Amino acid sequence: MNSITIIVFTLFVCATVAQEYTKKYDNVNIETILSNDRVITNYINCLLGKGACTKEGRELKKLLPDAIQTDCSKCTQEQKRNSRKVITFIRSRRPQDWAKLIAKYDPEGLFNKRSSFL
């Protein structure tokens, strides 16, 4: 499949600045988020337009298309690390949600073909 979702969960951590997304969420414990099914479900529903979004979810939803288009070029190293964790988690443990996210955000699979940061 692709490599988008942690860009998703990492970018929920981001707001655009000049050359990088904001670092204000870089210290978030991503494992804590991944271990909470309710929280992950809420973020996925937000990204799919099927549920309410938190402030962070709205930021992520706004920034995800740019991150996919630019191969996460504005992501910090920590955001890239967290993105890898989230993508791996969703691909392996929530493949149906992964497929829905890919269908919405990268239907042609271009990100997967270009992504070098993963």
UniProtKB/TrEMBL annotation:
Top-level taxon of origin: Eukaryota
Residues spanning the signal sequence: none
Gene3D superfamilies, A to Z: Insect odorant-binding protein A10/Ejaculatory bulb-specific protein 3
Transmembrane segment boundaries: none
Protein's UniProt name: Chemosensory protein 4
InterPro entries, per the entry: A10/PebIII, OS_D_A10/PebIII_sf
